[in-house]
């Protein structure tokens, strides 16, 4: 996910990261991935958001079943939310309202053209802050009624859900960076995520839209049983634009 829309930086979208000179394929170990990630504006902005939301949750107190409900609900929605954002915001045509207004399609288009350039692979700091704020509004829309219906702490449940969303976005940044490096995950879960995301980039951009979860792909039928079940796309790099 990348909404970096800067066009006046002088950065060639096919070049290495302008600040560090590092491409994602220069990273070969998990330690290198983490050391690089924490220097990026998106990770720093998200870390601040997580600390602030975590502190607010501790201050409010009143823990209970609402916290468990919020965590389970957030985990259950993650795959579908990722799918929707990826399909309708990140893959939005360059002349669409979403791209013209939010700039989401522009940055992601550049990412598909050059998947290992960190400037397009990861969110910008402002983008991360905007996404966390948007997640807060969306989270309030579903968590407040759910907490009220279940007789749970409304403020506490909302803050827990928002905190989970912020942590989820940080996890997204880590996974997205990891699958574009030379590091190969050891666990079955992350191996599957890496394989599917590479297929999304180099097999067919209309499938494997999940990054940290494949539940959205399963639900919306974009997770082929075999990669050969879908044709090799000529527009995986250009998104047809």
Measured between the Cα atoms of the first and last residue, the distance is 18 Å
- The secondary-structure class comes to mainly alpha
| Oligomerization state | single chain
Report the count of strand segments: 0
Backbone shape:
globular
> From N to C, what is the helix and strand string?
HHHHHHHHHH
Describe the model:
The protein has a domain of 160 residues. Helix 2 runs antiparallel to helix 8 and helix 7 packs antiparallel against helix 8. The protein is mainly α. It is globular and about 55 Å long. About 6% of the residues have low confidence. It has 10 helices and no strands. One of its GO terms (biological process) is lipid biosynthetic process.
In short:
This protein is mainly α and about 240 residues long. It is about 60% helix and about 0% strand.
Keywords:
241 residues; globular; mainly alpha; 60% helix
Give me the secondary-structure topology:
Elements: H1 30-37, H2 41-60, H3 65-90, H4 97-102, H5 104-113, H6 118-121, H7 125-149, H8 154-179, H9 188-202, H10 215-219
Helix pairs in contact: 1-8, 2-7, 2-8, 3-8, 7-8, 8-9
């Amino acid at each position: 996910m990348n909404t970096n829309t800067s066009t006046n930086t002088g950065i060639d979208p096919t070049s290495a990261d302008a600040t560090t000179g590092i491409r994602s394929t220069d990273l070969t170990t998990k330690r290198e991935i983490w050391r690089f990630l924490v220097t990026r504006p998106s990770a720093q902005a998200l870390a601040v958001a997580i600390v602030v939301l975590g502190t607010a949750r501790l201050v409010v107190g009143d823990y209970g079943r609402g916290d468990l409900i919020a965590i389970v609900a957030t985990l259950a929605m993650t795959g579908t939310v990722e799918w929707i954002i990826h399909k309708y915001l990140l893959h939005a045509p360059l002349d669409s309202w979403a791209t013209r207004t939010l700039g989401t399609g522009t940055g992601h288009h550049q990412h598909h053209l050059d998947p290992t350039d960190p400037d397009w692979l990861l969110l910008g700091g402002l983008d991360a802050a905007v996404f966390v704020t948007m997640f807060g509004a969306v989270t309030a829309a579903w968590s407040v009624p759910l907490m009220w219906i279940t007789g749970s702490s409304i403020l506490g449940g909302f803050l827990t859900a928002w905190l989970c969303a912020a942590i989820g976005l940080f996890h997204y940044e880590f996974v997205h960076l990891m699958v574009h490096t030379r590091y190969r995950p050891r666990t079955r879960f992350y191996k599957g995520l890496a394989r599917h995301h590479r297929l999304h980039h180099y097999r067919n951009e209309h499938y494997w839209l999940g990054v940290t979860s494949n539940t959205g792909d399963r639900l919306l039928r974009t997770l082929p049983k075999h990669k050969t079940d879908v044709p090799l796309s000529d527009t995986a790099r250009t998104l047809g634009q």
